[in-house]
Amino acid sequence: MLLGSGLALGVAAAGQNAVALLGDDLRWQSIIGIAQASNVVGNDSGAVVGGGAPWPAFDGHAIVDLEGGDLNFDVHGLVLAGGNSIGTRGTIEAFKGTLVCDTDGSASTSGSSVLVNTPLVGLDERGNARFNGNIGALPSVCISDPDVAFLIRVGSGRWIANGTVKR
Hints:
Layout: H1 2-22, E1 25-33, E2 40-41, E3 48-49, E4 59-65, E5 70-76, E6 94-101, E7 114-117, E8 121-122, E9 129-134, H2 140-144, E10 148-154, E11 159-166
Antiparallel strand pairs: 1-4, 1-11, 2-3, 4-5, 5-9, 6-7, 6-8, 6-10, 10-11
């Protein structure tokens, strides 16, 4: 009887965890700028090429509610680390946050990653920006596949920063 009770309790706990996972947020504890120019994140038609110069960032975070589509991110001190505009935002006045879902393309029949973007967000002269809004219902692969990256992309589509330490 003790074994049966323990098994039932284990199944109940697993069921609670499964339900809780559906409501989980994805969180990136910090935002860092691109270190390796032209690095590619994603696969096939969902691939995003990195910017051509390094962009360090002082701090930041990103959180997405997988069920509701709410996305919150901020970044501080995102500036160029090379060229004549070193230490400034250069000509970049706005960017967008992007979720790259299924980064390796293994969960889709097409082999492509799926991109979900925020509207453009203003970047102040010190390299600070914030977004808090809803990006709509997320594609199922963003919820079911663990390979999700958060990128900051300029208007041309190249990424210049990413979320790190995903939880």
